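Quick one:
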Amino acid sequence: MTSPEFTSNRDNYCYRHPDRQSFALCQRCMRTICPECQTQAAVGVICPECMKADRKNRTPAQKRAARRWGGGQTATVVRSGRPVVTYSLLAVTVLIGLLQLIPGAGDLITEQLRFASPYLYPSFSPYPFEPWRLLTVLFVHGGVVHLGLNMLSLWMLGQILEPMLGRTRFLALYLISGLGGSVVAACLAPLTAVVGASGAIFGLMAALLIIGRHIGANVTGILVILGINFFFGVFVGGISWQAHLGGVIAGALVAFVYTRTRRREQRVWQIVWLAVITIGLTVVVFVVPPLILLG
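Output:
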């Protein structure tokens, strides 16, 4: 992901490692820092220089607390460059995928976690009200190939996006994208049961496209891959292109919010806009499909 515009903008690279791309800013000095240089603070991350200054300015009481609880830092934990959220999502999803392979138990697990819009409207269907299926659908798949392709995509995209965004923002992007996939699937295919993390994966691809474009990277390859995968889902039976579309829309919206609220003083607005997107998706899924079912 390189282009002349990207290369010339040094704000897109770690100030301590000029060859490393990053999307995270120190919450004290607002300089760009890579995962190796990040220390997790109460809100966001801080760079080594600000961390050093913070330690130097600690009060005697803070120093005693640090000695008492161990370590040499004040209520902060050194953040590694490992995409922990990505690995955690992979571990949970693969574990559930393996359980699905157990004869007898697999069908039960799929039945309990899959999503279909009738589970949201007990007054229109014989099913109980189970709204959590909007997200649990991300952890069950329709076979080893389905699981493998989605997890490979998650691993590849997570390696790029999680260090750029930070763990909390990456997790929010993944879950909101998955929610968007379920919502659009409920609206455009209200009687179809769906499984898989494809909505969230497509949301990650859309976010990488938006963020890459924002920092001046060459996003042509991402756009081509996204287009091929989307149209493949449209023309091949058994694939919920509706969930793909919903993930793209939700992921793009979240990424747009991230690109416009990078500064520390904009953090509250970032949370507000993410809440607006989530609430908006929830309202849509509880209003539109019932109108379709009634029609």
